[in-house]
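4.2 Preliminary Data

To establish feasibility before requesting continued support, the project team ran the inverse folding procedure on a target of 99 residues. The structure was first converted into the token representation described in Section 3, and no sequence information of any kind was made available to the design step. The complete token record follows.
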């Protein structure tokens, strides 16, 4: 399994627009092969920063979605509300307890 962390900073006052687009993002991913789940977190110290944590069956499944035309369209739509670039981090889940 792969966890993907996607961090974005948004322009102040655009919470509703951003929330709606993030819901569309997730809806688009739901039908993708390999998508397991996702959650959106709001930074407790700065409400303009959101962290999306997606869970995928494999790195290949995530990369296929990341490079898809559908996701590129979503990225362009949400970029209007962003301040700065999107930050991506990808992690493999560690086997065993506490590893």
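Position-by-position output of the design step:
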């Amino acid at each position: 399994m792969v966890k993907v962390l996607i961090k974005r900073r948004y322009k102040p006052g655009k919470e509703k627009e951003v929330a709606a687009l993030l819901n569309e993002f997730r809806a688009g991913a739901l039908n993708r092969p390999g998508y397991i789940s996702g959650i959106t977190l709001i930074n407790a110290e700065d409400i303009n920063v959101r962290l999306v944590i997606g869970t995928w069956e494999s790195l290949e499944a995530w990369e296929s979605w990341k490079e898809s035309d559908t996701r590129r369209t979503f990225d362009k739509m949400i970029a209007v509300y962003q301040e700065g670039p999107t930050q991506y981090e990808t992690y493999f889940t560690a086997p065993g307890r506490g590893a």
